[in-house]
Amino acid sequence: MTSSSMAKTLVKTFLKAPHSLKTKIQAKQLHAQFLKTQPYSPSSTSILISIYSNFNLLQHSLLLFNSLNSPPLLAWKSIIKCYSSSGLFANSLTCFIKMRSFGIHPDHTMFPFVIKACVFLKNLRLGESIHGCIIRLGLDFDLFTGNALLNMYAKFQSLQLKGGSKGFAFNVFDGMPKSDELCGRMTQEREKSVIGLDSVTKVLEMMPQRDVVSYNTVIAGNAQNGLYEEALRMVREMGNADMKPDSFTLSSVLPIFAEYVDVMKGKEIHGYAIRHLFDSDCYIGSSLIDMYANCARIEDSCRVFSLLPKRDDISWNSIIAACVQNGVFDEGLKLFRRMLTAKVKPRDVTFSSIMPACAYLTTLHLGKQLHGYIIRGGFDDNVFIASSLVDMYAKCGNIKAARWIFDQMEHHDMVSWTAIIMGHALHGHAHDALSLFKQMEKDGVKPNYVSYIAVFTACSHAGLTDEAWRFFNGMSQNHGIKPGLEHYTAMADLLGRAGKLNEAYEFISSMHIAPTGSIWSTLLSACRIHKNLKLAEKVAKEIFKVDPENVGAYVLMSNMYAASRRWKEATKMRIFMKKKGIRKEPACSWIEVKNTVHTFISGDKSHPLYDRIFQALKDLLEQIEREGYIPDTNEDFHDVDEEQKKYLLFSHSERLALAFGILSTPAGTTIRITKNIRVCVDCHTAIKLISKVVQREIIVRDNSRFHHFKDGKCSCRDYW
């Protein structure tokens, strides 16, 4: 046999079995041999187009397609598929229209690609028209076409629930000849749903044949659209049809139990996954991590992660987000470092997950490192990451950097607006916060529940009572937002700070929702500041009714009794706390120096540099006394002599952290301290004077706001 005849035989063999070709090079070699050995044939050319289409070689497919005077069905089908696979969905549909104009009837294998194009163009009416065409041609029996339709309606259902499907406006009937009887009938159906479908379930019910993919599509669609009961009903129906759930089914169902916070049902799914060897699947693992995290079972999330044989970026992101959401911030940061060590590249969602950990721990240095990584990775134009950066810098005490990032953003969404407004509010820049809120409204961004919390916080820290009332009344009148517990708490806080204690009491008592211990505690704190023990006792009774284990209330009442020299009541309160096992949270401050966080507790002598810290505090005390400092021993509630009280004030945690910061950082640099409870009046006075004598800016973040101390003054103007 000659080499020419061998080549002919080989070409014919491959044309009969085109799927035996495994690479693009083999496809091109077959084409070359075809040109050498075979005469022109539309059917053979169509097979070559289908081969190129399988490898997504669009230009080669088009070159051959355009050489055909009257392309047969296979050629049309292949080019439509190739356009769709290349993301050129409008071209795919144009090609379908052109084919129909030539009177060529599509077969059942073509429609999945046409339906895919409808989905990506987000055109429901177009999809319904295609569905009508499928029914009229009697091709709705096909399983793959049915599954494609299920997916299409599920996606459109999701779009409608999220506010409509405004997508590419493409008319499948544009350019189609009026003589085409089928298209004429289809045109008449355009203004109405082809078969009146309003749910994915109806499509499933009309399918003569179903498989696991069919059920998975419906289950996933319902789960994503929040139709949880319907999704679970379909899982049961799937079981009744003798079809076993696969890993995709489980990963769709697990978020439902995460949403319901039903850990027992989630564990049942986990057990099923283990029995059927799905637990090593990355998607199942990530879903289990999310489910346990939502149920506040972070230990189980970590266990699932540790048992995964392979970890992809999704599983890493899931466990990092799980830790941060459950307040295990240090562990979240450790996992992020392990992720980088494992050479797993972070994605945009990674930074959005990890940034709140930096914000909470006020680790500005690490936040800056992450910001650098974000810039190098090209993620800085992502609105979600930019919003996280605004929040991180604001909560780490650098409001200028937060504002700069906000101003550099091309587009602002509700999250970014709220982050910068709340940032300015916490730093005491009330007028800037309110100005930004008004600008947000001018830009057409409608305020939401959280943005009003930021506004009330700003008003509270500046004593803007009248403005706060206007916003409070306007939130429901102008935007239909019903006040929630957080709004009431912020308003009560504002009235309390302003000394309007009786008004605050009446305000809380007249709430449309039952007051909680936390909102009454806000007023109790105000009673302590304004030394109104009579009202405090009344408020404390309200607290103990709804929250008998409220530690803060017992501590505040004990301190108020002590401040009034009513030692008997103070002692009685503390004995009661001891019997009930109620423990006061110790005052704690921390400061980051040279990438290390140093923690101090009031009266703590355990730090390695304590002797130097103590001496530095003595030196500072002498200097600020020359500036007029007089210790306010009323702020210490121990029944001891004045000298002992002075020593106790001297060793408050924020002062220990401040002295360490002065010793450990270069002169002139800003010192940033975080404290877990409110800064006391005496420490506030002392730090103002210390900022003057050491010529440093000192930023202290307590549990309610930031204090910027500089040149003997504080940004709060002594109103906090």
UniProtKB/TrEMBL annotation:
Which ranges form a coiled coil? Answer: none
Cite the Pfam families for this sequence: DYW_deaminase, E_motif, Eplus_motif, PPR, PPR_2
Q: Please report the residue spans annotated as repeat (PPR).
A: 72-106, 211-245, 312-346, 413-447, 448-483
Superkingdom of this entry's organism?
Eukaryota
DYW domain location, by residue? 628-720
| Keyword Repeat set for record | yes
Assigned keywords, A-Z: Repeat
The positions making up the signal sequence are: none
Report if keyword Repeat is assigned.
yes
What family does the Swiss-Prot or TrEMBL record give for this protein? Answer: Belongs to the PPR family. PCMP-H subfamily.
Record protein name field? DYW domain-containing protein
